[in-house]
Structure formats: structure tokens, C-alpha cells
Amino acid sequence: MAHLNPLSGGNFIRNEQPRSDGGSILKRFSLTGKTAIITGAAAGIGWAVAQAYAEMGCNIALWHFRNPEGPRRAEELIKRYNIICKAYRVDVRDTAAVDKAIDESVRDLNGRLDVFVANAGIPWTQGPMVDGPLDHYRDVVQSDLDSVYYCARAAARHWRRQRVESTDLFKNPLTDYSSGSFIATASMSGGIINIPQLQAAYNAAKAGVIHLIKSLAVEWALYARANSISPGYIMTEISDFVPQETKNIWHSKIPQGREGEPHELQGAYLYLASDASTYATGANFVIDGGFKKISLKFALVQNLGNQRSSDVTWVDNAATSLVSDPREIPKH
């Protein structure tokens, strides 16, 4: 399958498949007959995504590990939406376990893979890195970055085969298949330094996810799309350990004035899984209630001086330029 390598003789090989003819937007957002694997699917963002996909007709493999609710969640989706759904306990930090589970999931559902959502992850909870235990660092990086790589590698092999053979795992024709869609849950922390909490390992891992996805969008151009979603502060179990005093500081810097709810991310995950997003690849969707915009302005005020910070227009223009092109920060 070397001919699906996007680089040949130093030249970039583009995807030249015929463009979609559009058609009904409702049909393009439908996931009926498709199969998705979702990691970290028993709670939080992963569970919200699973519910959205199931409602849109998708067959789902719920991967869970630390949370034992997976089987019960699968039964709930089957009863509510009449889809094919099964739970699998998978340690996504183990590449052999990932390879085995993805093959089993595709075989158990309907022999095809359309969407993979790499959502599993854990927070950094040990304060300053200088005193933080290395075992916790390894666990965070393995859970939040390495696992995404392992899942992407395993999923891509299925998508490459499906593109070449145009069949599912049981050799049935794939008449309604164009490409795979890989969606990674990154974080706004991959592009900023959060305050007041200290979480260098988490920030670095999520930054790695964002750039990995951009790289995969190029490598997979002939058979799959890759995008990331970077949530801001979302009310899930992953942040239960955070003191309310810290959360109050978060809220004071979020234009929406609160943390988001998992269901407020469902639209983005649905868009990227569906045929409505066939031109979207290599993108990072930040959904943070406006936090990053405020954070950029705060940094400019603190680092570039109070005299400039008094010029509201300059700060606003500088923050906008910093997002698009740091070389274009306006002179004052």
C-alpha cells in the first residue's frame, strides 16, 4: 500500500477524489449505518459524544478503562436508540491492547470503521513539575498523548485498507464510504499556560496532540481526515479534584462566566464525524467560552506594560494579531 504514501519522490501527492455534490444537509449530518469507536466513553465528554452519535444512528464501540460504567452505558444506548453498541475495557496506553481491541470492535459491530474519537485522558494533579513524581508524568503523557498515537495508528490501517479494497472487513462493498475521520480531544491547554493551576506535563501532552493531528492530516490525505477539538474548562469528573477557589478564578476569566457542559461540545464532534465536514482536516477547534481571547489580552497587559494596557484598542488589536500572526503586533 506504498502508493497511498502522500509523499513520493519528494513530491506531495494530493487527494484527488471527486468532491461531494452536497445534497441534503440533514442527510450529511446523519451517521446512520456508520461505526464509531470512542475512548473514555463511559463518562464526561466521551459519554456526551456517544449519546450524540447514537441519536444520529451510529453504531458505537464504547472503550473504557478506569470507569466501570461502560457495559451499562452500552445497554442504555441500545435500548434508547436501537443501534449496535458494545463496551470494551481497553488500556489505551498499551499499543498491543489497542490493536486487538480495534480489530475486535470492527468485527463485532458491522465490519467497517468510519470514525475514531480519541478522547481518553487524565489530568495532572501533582502541582509544580519540579517536585512532581515521574510516575505521574509518565502516566499523563502515556494517557493523553501516546494513547492518541496508538489509536491513530491502528485506525489508519483500517481506513487505508477500506480505501484500497472498497470493502468492509467481511468483503462486502463499501458503497457509501469516502474516508475515515479521526477526532482527538486535545485542550485549550495545548495552546496556553493555565493559571493558577500548575500542569506542565498536561499542557505539553495536549500541545503534542494538536500538532500530531496536523501532521496526520497530511500523512493521511488519501484515506482519512484528522482534526482535534480543544475544550476549555468543562464540568466533568476529570476536574472534580479542583478546589472551588480555583474554579472561581477560571470563571472570572471566561466571558461566558462559567464552565461548559459536555453536551455543549456535541455539535463539534458530530460535525467532524459527519459528511458535513468533508473539507475539514488538520484543524483544531477551540471551544472554551472565549477564555483564550481573554487570556491573550491578560498576557499582553501583564507583559507589555501598564502604559500600553491603558490603550484598549491597541490591546485588542495586539491580541488579535497574536492569534493570527505574531509578527503583525501593532506598534504603539
Tell me what you see in this structure.
By secondary structure, the protein is α/β, with parallel strands linked by helices. The chain folds into two domains: 21-289, 3-Layer(aba) Sandwich (Rossmann fold), CATH 3.40.50; 291-332, no CATH class. The strands form two sheets. It has a seven-stranded parallel beta sheet with strand order 5-4-3-6-7-8-9, with helices on both faces. A two-stranded antiparallel ribbon has the order 1-2. It has eleven helices and nine strands. Residues 322-330 have low confidence and may be disordered. It starts with 6 loop residues before the first strand and ends in an 8-residue tail after the last helix. Helix 2 (44-55) packs across helix 8, helix 4 (95-108) crosses helix 5 and helix 9 packs across helix 11 (312-324). It has helices spanning 25-29, 44-55, 70-81, 95-108, 134-165, 200-219, 244-252, 266-273, 291-304, 306-309, 312-324, and strands at 7-8, 11-12, 35-39, 59-64, 85-89, 115-118, 180-185, 224-231, 284-287. This is L-xylulose reductase. InterPro entries: NAD(P)-bd_dom_sf (IPR036291), Sc_DH/Rdtase_CS (IPR020904), SDR_fam (IPR002347). Keywords: NADP, Oxidoreductase. Belongs to the short-chain dehydrogenases/reductases (SDR) family. One of its GO terms (molecular function) is oxidoreductase activity, acting on NAD(P)H, oxygen as acceptor.
Main features:
single chain; alpha/beta; Rossmann fold; 11 helices
Helix content: 40-55%
Number of strands: 9
From the alpha-carbon coordinates, what is the Rg to the nearest angstrom? 21 Å
Mean pLDDT: 87
> Biggest sheet: strands, sense, closure?
7 strands, parallel
Per CATH, what is the topology of the largest domain? Answer: Rossmann fold
Sequence of strands across the biggest β-sheet: 5-4-3-6-7-8-9
Structural class: alpha/beta
Number of helices: 11
Task: Tell me the β content.
Answer: 5-15%
| Coarse shape | globular
Highest CATH level, the class of the largest domain? Alpha Beta
How many domains make up the 3D coordinates? 2
